[in-house]
Hints:
The chain is α/β, with parallel strands linked by helices. Helix content is about 30%, strand content about 30%. The protein contains five helices and ten strands. The strands form two sheets. Strands 5-6-8-9-10-7 form a six-stranded antiparallel β-sheet. The chain has a four-stranded parallel β-sheet with strand order 2-1-3-4. A hairpin with a 2-residue loop joins strand 5 and strand 6. The longest helix has about 35 residues, at about 230-265. The chain is elongated and about 70 Å long.
Amino acid sequence: MSSTAAPRTLLLVGDRFAGFAAQQDVLTVTGFIEEMHLGVYSWDAQPIRVRAGQGVTAEDRELIRGQAQLLGLTARLDFDFRPPSLAGRGEAHKHLSCNTLIADLRRDGADLFSATLRVHNDNELLIDHQTGEHVQGMVAVEAARQMFLAVSERYHASRYLDRSYYYVIESMNTGFENFLFPVDATIVYHTLRAELDDPDRLSFAAEISLHQAGRRASITTVTYTAFDAPVIEAKEHRRARFAVEHTMRSAPQTATAAGAAAAGADPAAGQPVLVGV
């Protein structure tokens, strides 16, 4: 490579997306650091342009900058990383920020909202399931769920600041049209219905789509209601009590049937069954 050659541009992804690093010019965070230590970028003076994909964190950025300084590469490293402006804990309904998928939420029109997808390397949906080069479909489903919550909390429920809302999904259907990969993606929320006059009960219908590289990856249609929390919590508690009581009443029969199956007997045929107590 001569001194006039174009600088090398790399796409960096989190280590969870090692499968995607099979693509040319794509590296995981660990892979990039290993290449720096192996001297891959030390033999010429060309800039090292790095763009962050999904899974790259602020901690990764500091680690890479620290290693670049140690190896004398700081002046050449052009690392394009911007910390995302995540939806708040009360908007995405997530306690841990690593599980928040919605960032840079904005209103684009009366019925149109958008956000950027942000997938943390330690997101709960990646911990025990990540195969191939694409991001699993449940990330798209969860992103749609968080999107309707964030939009509703920030732009609609906020008109009733004295209320706390409990969201109930009535229907939710997702169609997948293209693979989703660990690079930039945009989430678009289109309001189909928003009934906001009754503060006790806000009703919505929406279409939420996920876009990447000029294609739509998925589309979700959802209908849901935001109930004033005290009202729905009391109803939920009553139904939970019913479920407990029903389970307790049916437990002996269930145990009897299970014991019969284990012993090879048919409880319906009147065979005696011993049940431990």
